[in-house]
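Researcher: Let's do a round of design. I'm pasting the structure tokens now; please hold your answer until I've finished.
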């Protein structure tokens, strides 16, 4: 799982909506500004104290993985003054310094949907854990040739994404939530999430599977930069494929699992996958719309 910065987008939820005012997500410029106004030491998601998070880091193997990388015992900081953005930060010492290794903006909230492809969920209110921002990084080390920088990364990853996701799943189970929602900022984030997440919209899932098929054999970094640099070409239009952030969901309730296991979901995903035709151009190839594409 990679380090990413939140895009300057306010309401990223296309198909899941929160009753009442929309959740406003932090923009890149908002992140630091939000910090001073928050209280320190209250409960994460109104349930977890810092000691609970430290215990979870040990139980799920995160602390051991960090120790093998040369870090000391992790330190946990919570910021919970803003009810729409609970923040957990993890620091750890190494080589005489203390490093920020992980940061997550989390929110537990009720969501509903009226999406036409999810009729079985209409009128059903689901309480979900929403991962608004997740950063896992090792700022004590440089990038390596075999693990180059990915879009959105400031530092190399820690290789603890599975353990951290297991922690989030444990939170969802303990709090009896229906699932976990995240909107991957980059295509490679979706690749890393796909072990436990699927796109809520079956058409988005099908397009993503087609994109992965076109990138078969590429390293994750090569795939990520091909998408970011506009070198994935839609063969129908001849224009670059544009990554759009859509909800990926890890279902933890029977109701949501039924959505992803339904014949309707699979049929629509298959149709979208077959309809999506794209190719990946090499880095030296000029972009088809280099003169006219938006930033």
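Researcher: That's everything. Go ahead.
Model: Designed sequence:
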């Amino acid at each position: 799982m990679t380090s990413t910065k939140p895009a300057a987008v306010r309401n990223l939820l296309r198909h899941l909506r929160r009753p009442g005012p929309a959740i406003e997500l932090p923009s890149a410029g908002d992140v630091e500004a939000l910090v001073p106004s928050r209280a320190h030491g209250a409960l994460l998601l109104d349930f977890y104290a810092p000691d609970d998070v430290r215990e979870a880091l040990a139980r799920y193997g995160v602390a051991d993985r960090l120790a093998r990388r040369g870090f000391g015992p992790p330190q946990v900081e919570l910021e919970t003054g803003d009810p729409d953005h609970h923040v957990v930060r993890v620091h750890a010492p190494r080589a005489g310094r203390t490093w920020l290794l992980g940061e997550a903006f989390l929110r537990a909230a009720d969501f509903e949907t009226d999406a036409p492809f999810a009729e079985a969920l209409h009128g059903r209110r689901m309480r979900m854990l929403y991962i608004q921002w997740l950063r896992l990084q090792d700022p004590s080390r440089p990038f390596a040739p075999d693990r180059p920088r990915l879009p959105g990364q400031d530092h190399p990853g820690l290789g603890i994404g599975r353990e951290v996701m297991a922690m989030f799943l444990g939170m969802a189970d303990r709090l009896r939530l229906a699932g976990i929602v995240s909107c991957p900022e980059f295509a490679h984030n979706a690749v890393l999430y796909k072990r436990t997440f699927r796109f809520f919209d079956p058409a988005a899932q099908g397009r993503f599977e087609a994109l992965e098929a076109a990138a078969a054999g590429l390293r994750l970094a090569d795939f990520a930069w091909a998408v970011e640099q506009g070198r994935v070409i839609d063969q129908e239009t001849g224009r670059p494929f544009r990554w759009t952030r859509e909800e990926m969901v890890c279902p933890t309730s029977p109701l949501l699992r039924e959505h992803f296991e339904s014949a309707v979901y699979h049929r629509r995903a298959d149709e979208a996958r077959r309809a999506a035709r794209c190719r990946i151009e090499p880095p030296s190839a000029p972009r088809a719309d280099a003169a006219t594409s938006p930033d």
